[in-house]
Amino acid sequence: MEISVLGRVDYLPTYQAMQDYTSQRGPDTPDALWLCEHPSVFTQGLAGKADHLLVPGDIPVVQTNRGGQVTYHGPGQVMAYPLIDLRRAGYFVKEYVYRLEEAILRTLAHYGVTGHRVAGAPGIYVRLDDPYGHAPLAQRPQKGHISDKAPDFTGLGKIAALGVKVSHHCTYHGLALNVTMDLEPYNRINPCGYPGLPTVDLSTMGVSVDWNDVAQVLGDKLRAHLQP
Fold this sequence. Notes:
With 228 residues, the chain is an alpha+beta fold. It has 4 helices and 10 strands, in the order βαβββββααββββα. It has a single domain (2-111, 157-225), classed as 2-Layer Sandwich (BirA Bifunctional Protein, domain 2), CATH 3.30.930.10. 22% of the residues lie in helices and 27% in strands.
């Protein structure tokens, strides 16, 4: 996997570049991982509903072909875009998403923060009153059990979001991990379609760390967990 740290780049050209890379790749094209951050932008997924955009104001809104609802990207957030040939890697989309989440969990653990999965709500969450405790969530995904209950985010904050696209077995889009951000724009939307869902970053959890440091750790974890 070729890892590229792009720095701060505009969203639309990056989105187009991911599509071009995916459409032009062949069976021998190497997998890649792009790490970057974007100027402020709201992105709307294929399932996105206009009423989840509350007051976007001066922040542009971009319609995309990824899964999921509306989210926010901005400075101080590590964007990770894995460009993976899943057929060559030997696993399917569900396993791919699990591996993405696992890389985020391991990255948070590197900084002493305990992340959690919530059944039915992709992404990674933290306990607001105990971000370092290891007690499992009752509503974590459990093998062989499918919950019919809506996710309960009481006491939780979302620290990382996922939104992926798979075209001809090849992935693009990816994940966002919040490091040190201005979180106000999340108040202008229903994050990922959930009204009132608190959104946090590592600095909220008391972790003061450089963007480049988190990008390096996350890149290493993704490279390890996305191996065939």
